[in-house]
Amino acid sequence: xxxxxxxxxxxxxxxxxxxxxxxxxxxxGVLSTLAMAGTASASxxxxxxxxxxxxxxxxxxxxxxxxxxxxxVAAENTRLAAVAGELTAQEESARTGAAAEAKxxxxxxxxxxDAEKAxxxxxxxxxxxxxxxxxxxxxxxxxxxxxxxxxxxGTGTVSAPATGSAxxxxxxxxxxxxxxxxxxxxxxxxxxxxxxxxxxYRQAGISLPRMSxxxxxxxxxxxxxALQPGDILYWGSKGSAYxxxxxxxxxxxxxxxxxxTGIVERNLSYDKPTGAVRLL
Length: 280
Fold this sequence. Notes:
Elements: H1 17-42, H2 63-139, H3 164-175, E1 180-181, E2 190-191, H4 193-202, H5 212-215, E3 220-222, E4 232-235, E5 243-249, E6 252-258, E7 262-267, E8 275-278
């Protein structure tokens, strides 16, 4: 074997210098601390170390009361919201109901107006038919025609056996047959009922009031069964009559009836008068 051959060593391997230095430093620090502590505890004149206590703030909260108050407020808010919702619903319902009632009332008023209009139209039609039937019956009746001793005015015929003032009145009235009826008319081309009677009596020199009410009470009342030519016939109450005409004899009268017929000669049965007065 060679003398220079490597023989393994049984010694522990050396530590590195840096590690040894760190360990030495740590040990020295520990020994220094122990020495200072021993000195402090051995010194009788050393003052005791004052201890400081940190107090944490105490939270004085009544959580139960707060929770109860919050629940109460929430419940009240819920109740108020429900009441408000109910009021709103009631208001809306009231508005809807009022609108429906107004619509129904309008429809009922319209129906009533339509019904009244239809009823009025039916009555007018019935009056026209009745007037047409009367006119037809009258046109078929026989008339006795005589010559008048007075000068006729307008159209018409003279058929009444009258004398004196009565003849003048009758002849004038019949001479106006066929002329127009005009409310307020006093001649010579048109008359209303009282205008015709007034103009006829003027032919006999008799002045009559203008209106039918006054004419119906201008003379002496006579029975319809004892009429004489020239008597004034009236419809309605005496003193408040709404229509007048002149009796011309033979159960007939001459009168300004209405705008549709004008001045006509009719039988008493055509439209029976209420009464009569006599001025002659």
